[in-house]
Write a structure and sequence with these properties.
It is a single chain. Strands 1, 2, 3, 4, 5, 6 and 7 form a seven-stranded mixed beta sheet that branches. The chain has one domain (3-161): Flavodoxin domain (Rossmann fold). α1 (13-25) crosses α5 (144-156). The chain has helices at 13-25, 42-53, 86-94, 114-126, 144-156, and strands at residues 3-7, 28-31, 72-80, 83-84, 101-108, 130-131, 135-138. By secondary structure, the protein is of the alpha/beta class. The structure holds flavin mononucleotide (FMN). The site of flavin mononucleotide has 21 residues, from α1, α2, β3 and β5.
């Protein structure tokens, strides 16, 4: 499998998109999890949101994947305070993406992923990766069926990477 999809998801929306991408492109799928899983609630917005704002990383569990086997890596995160989630910061920080094409993708409540994309692009480049595309999917008041359909549509642009 040339393609890898790595993602973090707190409430399942980014997971759904990641599963669709992996299905369409016959890619390996890896979930990033935190050593101290968060519970959705006001505290996540305060603590998690603030951590994202200041580009913090969080402690993540080790993943069992040989990145050398994959030429293209999709990296998925929810948008947290216009930035990637801390768990994704950790994954990017600890990984050397030299020679890899990276396609970040987001799910978010609103419509604007520009700031999050600029932020994650800088981090990916710092880890030697080349951003070769991106997309973002709105999740608020959008059914899972519709999210999956939009993910399928967005993935169509990357058919060639299989
Ligand atoms: C801490 C926190 C901060 C968020 N900040 C934003 C934001 O700045 N912009 C936005 O559009 N959505 C924001 N959201 C909404 C999530 O991006 C959205 O619900 C996303 O689809 C959740 O993905 P997940 O189900 O994979 O966790 C935030 C959610 C949380 C929990």
């Amino acid at each position: 499998m040339k393609v890898l999809v790595v993602y973090y998801s707190l409430t399942g929306k980014t997971r759904l998109v990641a599963q669709v991408i992996a299905g369409v492109l016959n890619a390996a799928l890896v979930e990033i999890t935190e050593t101290k899983p968060r519970k959705m609630g006001p505290l996540v917005y305060l603590v998690g949101g603030f951590a994202a704002t200041i580009n913090r990383r969080s402690k993540i569990n080790p993943i069992d994947v040989d990145l050398k086997q994959h030429e293209t890596i999709f990296i998925g995160s929810p948008v947290w305070n216009s930035r990637p989630a801390p768990a994704i910061n950790s994954f990017i920080y600890q990984t050397n993406f030299e020679g890899r094409s990276i396609i970040p993708f987001f799910t978010m409540a609103g419509d604007n992923s520009e700031k999050a994309l600029a932020n994650i692009t800088a981090k990916i480049e710092k880890s030697q990766g080349k951003v070769a595309g991106s997309f973002a999917i709105k999740s608020h008041r959008v059914s899972d069926e519709e999210i999956a359909a939009r993910a399928k549509e967005a993935t169509r642009n990357y058919r060639g990477v299989e």
